[in-house]
């Protein structure tokens, strides 16, 4: 992967400002791209853009392919004539600094339903042709997803494992009957996806034309309550009743003394190998149509993963199982002609097989600056970085730099100050400068660190559910002073886009 020395910012779409309760693909997103370009950043990293599931997490999605329709911009719908300004008059009083998902989801769904009804009335040949082309092109995943979500809505949101047995087991006659009865609902879901992809691809194109690459995110595991698990049960360790027999997670680590019990179903990698990893090749190809670079979250699971009995209450009991390893990447080369642009999230309990797999295919790994300050031989210390790596001050799973510094052990704080030659008065910026001056080809930081925010702006806390993924910023926080500071470090450390 071509990794010219560059920099960027980690910011999810939901965190963008705007009047509709959640960041979206509208004017604020374009303003954000302009900000990146003006500061000479050339990378924008987002989290998964799939529909959020349990706990509002983008890492527990209803689909590995569908888009989160809450990110569709009402302003752009108005421009296309699908809704009118008057339709926004009675919107709820949304908070400006966070996402209230319950209120947003209800309001957005009603607004999109109105857009669909208006679409059916106006009979725009241009939109109809674009919609039909989209549905034909994406039918290989869209048909199952639209059917899955329509059934889920009809079943009051129940997980598919709780559906009537005929629907749960995908009985052909039962599915055909449901499709005929709920055809309008299924068409509406497809229409929403059409709007999502249309708006996102326009935004990505705008960013690319400004010289900015979008870094997307592929969670290694899919959600159990998803169209992917329901529609491809043979790909996972799922029993005849639709229940997983073993699930994903990680053993006790830095983030959690009892490990992290994610609950995702685990892949039958032998079966995937027999198909040439067809489902995975399609997944990566789809993501590369949406992003310029993809980060594989929990990359270590491709070398070896932690298998937990489904009935286990924590992740403490489990065993390491060998992943698909080189077979997977050789299939990628066969599919794409070369390894596509991939960042390996190589954090957590890393063993020699993970390092070998990463380095064999020359994949850039991740360096987290907050992990660096236990001593001079720490592998996260910048003086030990290889160029083929991506350094972050922290990720969406970390505290902000300011919050981390306040709560870190005293020995780490002391070493941090010595390492950075810092007084600690502007620790967030001192850590950003350290990341930017490092030898890592790419340097990124969450926007929260550029804004010098404390723990109240944290995006996520691994192992905890509720109250996360909701942070938003105010457009006025993107000051001229911040622009000048960011332009300066991009210039002096040779990271101008």
Please outline what is shown here.
The chain has helices at residues 27-38, 74-79, 101-122, 125-137, 139-154, 165-168, 172-181, 183-209, 227-231, 269-274, 278-288, 326-336, 352-360, 401-407, 410-420, 427-437, 447-450, 480-492; strands at 6-10, 43-45, 213-219, 246-250, 260-265, 293-297, 304-309, 319-322, 342-344, 365-368, 389-392, 442-446.
Radius of gyration: 23 Å
Shape, please? globular
* CATH homology superfamily name: Glycosidases
CATH domain fold name: TIM Barrel
Helicity, in percent?
Answer: 25-40%
SS element count, helices: 18
The assigned CATH architecture is: Alpha-Beta Barrel
Give the structural class: alpha/beta
Q: Which characteristics define this entry?
A:
497 residues; alpha/beta; TIM Barrel; eight-stranded parallel sheet; 40% helix
Structural overview:
The protein has 497 residues and is an alpha/beta fold. It has a single domain, classed as TIM Barrel (Alpha-Beta Barrel). Helix content is 40%, strand content 11%. The chain contains 18 helices and 12 strands. It has helices at 27-38, 74-79, 101-122, 125-137, 139-154, 165-168, 172-181, 183-209, 227-231, 269-274, 278-288, 326-336, 352-360, 401-407, 410-420, 427-437, 447-450, 480-492, and strands at 6-10, 43-45, 213-219, 246-250, 260-265, 293-297, 304-309, 319-322, 342-344, 365-368, 389-392, 442-446. Strands 9-6-3-2-1-12-11-10 form an 8-stranded parallel sheet. It has a 4-stranded antiparallel sheet with strand order 5-4-7-8, with no helix packed on it. Strand 1 (6-10), helix 1 and strand 2 (43-45) form a beta-alpha-beta unit. Helix 4 (125-137) crosses helix 5 and helix 5 (139-154) packs across helix 8. The radius of gyration is 23 Å and the shape is globular. The chain starts with 5 loop residues before the first strand and ends in a 5-residue tail after the last helix.
């Amino acid at each position: 992967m071509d990794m010219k020395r560059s920099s960027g910012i980690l910011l999810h779409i939901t965190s963008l400002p705007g009047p509709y309760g959640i960041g979206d693909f509208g004017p604020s997103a374009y303003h954000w791209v302009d900000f990146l370009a003006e500061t000479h950043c050339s990378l924008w990293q987002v989290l998964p853009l799939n529909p959020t599931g349990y706990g509002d997490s983008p890492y527990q999605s209803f689909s590995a392919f569908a888009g989160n329709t809450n990110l569709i911009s009402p302003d752009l719908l108005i421009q296309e004539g699908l809704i009118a300004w008057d339709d926004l008059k009675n919107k709820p009083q949304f908070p400006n600094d966070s996402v209230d998902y319950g209120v947003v989801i209800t309001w957005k769904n009603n607004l999109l339903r109105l857009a669909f009804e208006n679409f059916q009335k106006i009979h725009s040949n241009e939109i109809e042709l674009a919609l039909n082309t989209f549905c034909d092109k994406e039918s290989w995943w869209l048909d199952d997803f639209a059917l899955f979500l329509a059934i889920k809505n009809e079943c009051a949101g129940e997980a598919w494992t709780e559906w009537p047995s005929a629907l749960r087991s995908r009985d052909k006659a039962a599915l055909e009957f449901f499709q005929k009865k709920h055809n309008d609902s299924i068409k509406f879901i497809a229409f929403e996806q059409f709007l999502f992809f249309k708006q996102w691809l326009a935004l990505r194109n705008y960013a690319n034309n400004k010289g900015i690459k979008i870094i997307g995110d592929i969670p290694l595991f899919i959600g159990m309550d998803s169209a992917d698990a329901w529609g491809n049960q043979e790909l996972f360790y799922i029993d005849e009743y639709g229940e997983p027999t073993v699930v994903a997670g990680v053993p006790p680590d830095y983030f959690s003394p009892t490990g992290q019990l994610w609950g995702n179903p685990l892949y039958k990698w032998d079966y995937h190998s027999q198909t040439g990893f067809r489902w995975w090749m399609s997944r990566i190809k789809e993501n590369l149509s949406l992003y310029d670079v993809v980060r594989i979250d929990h990359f270590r699971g491709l070398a070896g993963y932690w298998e937990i009995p489904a009935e286990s209450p924590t992740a403490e009991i489990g065993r390491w199982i060998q992943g698909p390893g080189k077979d997977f990447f050789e299939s990628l080369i066969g599919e794409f002609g070369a390894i596509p642009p991939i960042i390996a999230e190589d954090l957590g309990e890393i063993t020699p097989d993970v390092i070998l797999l990463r380095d064999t295919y020359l994949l850039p790994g991740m360096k987290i600056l907050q992990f660096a300050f236990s001593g001079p031989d720490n592998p996260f210390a910048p003086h030990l970085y290889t160029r083929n790596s991506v350094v972050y001050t922290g990720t969406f799973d970390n505290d902000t730099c300011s919050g981390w510094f306040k709560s870190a052990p005293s020995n780490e704080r002391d070493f941090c100050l010595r390492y950075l030659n810092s007084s600690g008065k502007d620790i967030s910026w001192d850590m950003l400068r350290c990341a930017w001056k490092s030898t890592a080809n790419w340097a990124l930081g969450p926007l929260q660190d550029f804004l010098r925010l404390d723990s109240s702006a944290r995006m996520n806390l691994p192992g905890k559910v509720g109250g996360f993924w909701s942070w938003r910023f105010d457009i006025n926080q993107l000051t001229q002073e911040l622009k000048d500071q960011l332009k300066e470090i991009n210039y002096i450390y040779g990271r101008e886009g």
